[in-house]
Write a structure and sequence with these properties.
The protein is α/β, with parallel strands linked by helices. Helices cover 43% and strands 15% of the residues. An eight-stranded parallel β-barrel has the order 3-4-6-7-8-9-10-11, surrounded by six helices. A two-stranded antiparallel ribbon has the order 1-2. It is globular. The mean pLDDT is 91. It binds flavin mononucleotide (FMN). Residues 17-20, 22, 42-43, 72, 99, 101-102, 141, 171, 202-205, 225-228, 330 line the site of flavin mononucleotide (FMN).
Length: 332
């Protein structure tokens, strides 16, 4: 079961996906506490990181206690990407992931993220530069291709393996699909067949059943879960228990659920400060309230509360409720 990534044995290959604005240190800490093979940071734009643009270093705040953190870097130029890789390695990253899948125009216009898939020669120079800059395992996260006419992920993966990449994560959509339609887990099999390094399936995996189907159709060596963990930091541990037989998480309910959310809220406020922390926390509070179908008026009160103390006093009423049946569908 599992595989080695450098000198690390990944016993349970259920990974937390990088989600910009979401997989920050407080959330990764929580997910790790329940159990996860790897947790991936939000992407760090190499240029902004090197120039110390405000807000960028917080994204790379790794947390010494979390030893399964992978740090994702994004950029278009091999030199700055290599430099950023060296810096995050010095900060304690255990794994470095190259973003070659983000469809955001901000990135693709700047010729990075998924746009790199359109210029494999340039992508190869960038991968070689990063892999050559650090002793850590370097991984690659990408999509099936740019569009349906250019599904070149198998070629890219083969090339990446040749350049020293140790694991490839494939989101089963093309760039031009953005997040529409369903992830095509079957199409990931062509990547699995093209390389000998571990291949991880990603996209629309929200629980044990979808993880199992994704693994079966793709032949992948593990799964990566993003939106399915929003409001459910225990989700990866649940999936791992179902598939790999690891101990299942104790999923908090009632007062335990209230306590978990209050602690997460507090962690966000102390990590970001009250102003930014309050804004970041709203997304997470919304997902937690979805779980128990908090009545709309109360939900509004929580999300518009004028001060953190008011949020805290509202949480028991908002959250100490039975969870509603979980949908196997993701919000778009
Ligand atoms: C809000 C949001 C932010 C994301 N940020 C990143 C990112 O920083 N780096 C990256 O490689 N992918 C990013 N993704 C893509 C996810 O990592 C993942 O590939 C995608 O959401 C499909 O997986 P899921 O269905 O499990 O969420 C982001 C997706 C969302 C919805």
């Amino acid at each position: 079961m599992g595989f080695d990534l450098g000198d690390r044995h990944i016993a349970s290959p259920v990974f937390l996906a990088p989600l910009a604005g979401i997989t920050d240190l407080p959330f990764r800490t929580l997910v790790s506490r329940f159990g996860a093979g790897l947790v991936v940071s939000e992407m760090i734009a190499s240029g902004e990181f090197l120039t110390a643009r405000p807000g960028t270093r917080e994204k790379a705040e790794l947390g010494a206690a979390i030893d399964n953190t992978s740090v994702q870097i994004a950029g278009r130029e091999p030199g700055p990407m290599a430099e950023a890789a060296r810096m995050v390695a010095d900060m304690g990253a255990k794994v470095i992931d190259i973003n070659m899948g983000c469809p955001a125009k901000k990135l693709t216009g700047g010729y990075s993220g998924s746009a790199l898939m359109r210029d494999p020669d340039h992508a190869l120079r960038l991968i070689e530069a990063v892999a050559g800059a650090v002793d850590l395992p370097v991984t690659l996260k990408t999509r099936l291709g740019w569009d349906d006419n250019a599904r070149n992920a198998p070629d890219l993966a083969r090339m990446a393996e040749g350049a020293g990449v140790r694991m490839v994560v494939i989101h089963g959509r093309t760039r031009c699909q953005f997040y529409k339609g369903r992830a095509d887990w079957k199409a990931i099999r062509a990547v699995r067949d093209a390389v000998t390094i571990p291949v991880i399936a990603n996209g629309d995996i929200v629980g044990g059943a979808s993880a199992l189907t994704a693994l079966k159709l793709s032949g992948a060596d593990g799964v990566m879960v993003g939106r399915g963990a929003q409001g459910a930091p225990w989700r990866l541990a649940e999936i791992s228990a179902e598939i790999y037989g690891t101990p299942g998480p104790v999923v908090p309910e009632g007062p335990d659920f209230v306590r978990l959310v209050a602690d997460h809220h507090e962690a966000m406020l102390s990590f970001y400060g009250v102003d930014l922390g309050t804004r970041v926390a709203r997304k997470h509070l919304g997902w937690y309230m979805d779980r128990v179908a908090t009545p709309p008026a109360l939900r509004r009160q929580v999300l518009t509360a004028p001060a953190p103390e008011v949020v805290r006093t509202l949480l028991p009423d908002a959250l100490d409720r039975p969870p509603v049946a979980r949908s196997e569908r993701l919000a778009a």
